[in-house]
Amino acid sequence: MQRARSLGILAVLLALVALAVVPAIPASAGNVVVVSVKPQVFNATISAVIYNQTVNVTTNGTTIDLSQYYNMSQWKNASMIMTITGLNTSITVKALAGTTTVFNGQVTPLASGEYATVLPLADKIELSGAETSVTLTITVKADVTFYVHFVNTTAVATPGGKYIFPFTVEQSGGGPVYTVWQFDDGQTALKLNAKVYYVDSNHQLHIWTDESHPIKTTGDGWKANGQVEVTIPADAKTGDKYYLTISLYASPTGEFGLNAQLVAKVTLSSGDAGNASTSSNLGAKIHSIDAKSLGIGAVVALVFALVFMGHGGKHGRRRGTATSPGVGILILLVLIAAIGLAAGLIDVQTRFNIDPKMLGVGILAMLALILLIRQGTVPAPRIVRKIVG
Questions:
Q1: Do residue 19 and residue 130 come from a single domain?
Q2: Which residue of 79, 133, 297, 301 is 20 to 30 Å from 119, comparing CA positions?
Q3: Model confidence over 244-280: pLDDT tens digits?
Q4: Of 85, 112, 142, which residue sits at a domain end?
């Protein structure tokens, strides 16, 4: 009975060893397309006219409350351009940010009847002097950057399937603007189809490529979640080269004409098309992080290490002493097993297409086999028993 059970254990262990060295071939070994995304960001300057009206200047002073038209706290790295036209006499202009005066001086008209100056951000403008009417234009100008971060930058996809690339966008500088993703002209003809969605706080998806319904930011510090859904053509083959570029534009007015600024660009490609750095070789298999496997692998490796250190086979602890030649081999194999299991939990590309996780399982199986041989449970030739200690 004991011998039959030992032979059964031996068969299972040999199966694990064989499984460990079999190449990890994807399910659709015929065609696999590796798609990669590469984001780029661009610094841009956003200008928005927040006030443009005729103002009656009086000797007692006229105050314009700009906080009705914009929120100063939402703007960073910004300044104001104050332009006064129709000026035919000198007037006094005072600009305040809260209770702090950021500008106070007498404005004298130029020959053109126009005066312009750059101010720090302010929320109030006071005009005083001789009775007159002028046109006051306030333009807010700011440097802005939109950072785009993708959770995954590479994916192995099958023909006809879809893959989702989640991403986040964060605005640095500037104020509230309207944003929309646009596909570069001509790129969709290359068959790599994609959609871009905005994910709201209720986890609902909204098309982010609709200029009639752009996504509005809240200014500096704004952050949003989105996703790019890529559809692989059903007739795609390994090595096919696809290329698609989507660009993020920001507009202070929601009109995506000449005043829209390019703030980010994402290139999606397969094979070595465009600037892709990932080959669509079958061996370029991505292994995702698996916390459960990491924990199980670490516990198993530790248990086996303790067993090997604590048992010396059927002859007691004498064979398990540090002087036994088998102990060094066992320690080495335990380390290799731990390294193999850990390697399987990191995003790597293996040239020989061997799954490190299965390699670790196979090594642990061999360790168990060695333990059974040392205990005399599994019969083995004399030379094998001598090697394992």
A1: no
A2: 133
A3: 899 999 999 888 887 789 999 999 888 654 443 333 3
A4: 142
Instruction: Examine residue 35 and state whether it is found in any structural domain, yes or no.
Output: no
In tens, the pLDDT along 277-300 reads 333 332 223 333 444 455 555 555
* DSSP assignments along 210-254, one per residue: -TTSPEEP-STT-EEEEEEEEE--TT--TT---EEEEEEEEESSS
Task: Please give the residue that has the higher pLDDT: either 309 or 85.
Answer: 85
Q: Which residues, other chains included, contact 258 with Cβ-Cβ below 8 Å and sequence gap of 6+?
A: none
Residue 134: which residues within 8 A CB-CB, separation 6 or more?
A: 54, 55, 57, 84, 85, 86, 87, 91, 127
Contact 86, 133 (CB under 8 A): yes
> Is there a single domain that holds both residue 304 and residue 337?
yes
Quote the CA–CA distance of 231 and 234 in Å, as a whole number: 9
Quickly list H helices, 152-288.
none
CATH number at residue 108: 2.60.120.1380
Domain that holds residue 369: 2-24+285-387
The pair of structure tokens assigned to 23 is 């190449």
